[in-house]
């Protein structure tokens, strides 16, 4: 193609920025990101982002969500895993750190083995006699943890470094994305901009999209100071909980998974439950000098380590992620070509790079069709 097709990505969370980078790196497109909320370096120093924005409130770590029979999702998670691992080894400032992960399952639903035992480096089944009470299956493996504020800023800076443009603006209708491209001199006389919708829960109310299948999953977490914690641990089941170190002395402990709950206020009873469950998972949350102290004494110490109590909303969708291309009618611009990638619930970070490749593939197909029609 003799010119670069303008593309505007709506949304600057982990999905939007990953998609924008993938498109810009292809050198086939001139990419602009428009978003109401964008990463700032202040997020790493206690500046709280909007609760309407999902990505900054994530843990986060790489832990598979895909089932044993969901091979396409397994591939997405593994592709993202390997790419993130490569970045962790080559860039100390990306917010990605290699560590040990432990997953504890209270029930296996008839399964006797998890798919990633055979796919992830260092994976091994934990012997039954070493499992905590109430746990049926455990796996230890090599994984990575994500310092979310640092990683989001890394993505934004990378996008800018390779020639991308970021515009901080709220749009009420998907068609307004085209106006942003025109205003900032990125429009083409040859073809209207392609629009990529990565607005997460915003797709519920975004004009032209209004996807009623979107819903929030409320998550409450605590950010604590616990520099001795080096591994990430998750317990799945009735006693759900997790511990995720960020590699800088701060640790995210959680949590909750409350479908359709829109309450933005932290719950004090939930905070106490999180403290107790997290300490059961990882004794290193408190000082070794407290080894002989009662559990309540340890909880009191852990309570003093709380930096912040946080609430966020995972952008979930009935039917799963929406990944597709459609033409949407607009009053100002007629039909515009829109590519959707949203609804990643709690697995956005760990699948983000693969979904970005999926979007690139969709956009490439549309670009080839356009080029063929011009010939």
The number of distinct helices, counting runs of at least 4 residues, comes to 7
The amount of helix comes to 25-40%
String of helices and strands: EHEHEEEHEHEEEEEEHHEEEH
Distance between the termini: 11 Å
Number of strands: 15
Gyration radius, rounded: 22 Å
Q: Sheet with the most strands?
A: 9 strands, mixed
Kindly provide the name of the CATH class: Alpha Beta
- Structural class per helix/strand content? alpha/beta
CATH superfamily: D-Amino Acid Oxidase, subunit A, domain 2
Mean pLDDT comes to: 95
Low-confidence segments, given as residue ranges, are none
The overall number of domains is 1
CATH architecture: 2-Layer Sandwich
**Which topology does CATH recognise?**
D-Amino Acid Oxidase, Chain A, domain 2
What portion of residues belong to β-strands? Answer: 25-35%
Protein model, in words:
The protein has 375 residues and is an alpha/beta fold. It has a single domain (5-374), classed as D-Amino Acid Oxidase, subunit A, domain 2 (D-Amino Acid Oxidase, Chain A, domain 2, 2-Layer Sandwich), CATH 3.30.9. The protein is built from 7 helices and 15 strands. It has helices spanning 14-25, 71-90, 148-161, 176-183, 268-281, 295-304, 348-374; strands spanning 5-10, 29-35, 96-105, 124-125, 137-146, 165-168, 194-197, 214-225, 232-236, 241-245, 250-254, 258-259, 306-317, 322-330, 334-342. Strands 3, 4, 5, 8, 9, 10, 11, 12 and 13 form a 9-stranded mixed beta sheet that branches. Strands 6-2-1-7-15-14 form a 6-stranded mixed beta sheet, sandwiched between helices. Helix 1 (14-25) runs parallel beside helix 3 and helix 1 (14-25) crosses helix 7. It is elongated and about 75 Å long. The model has no long low-confidence stretch (mean pLDDT 95).
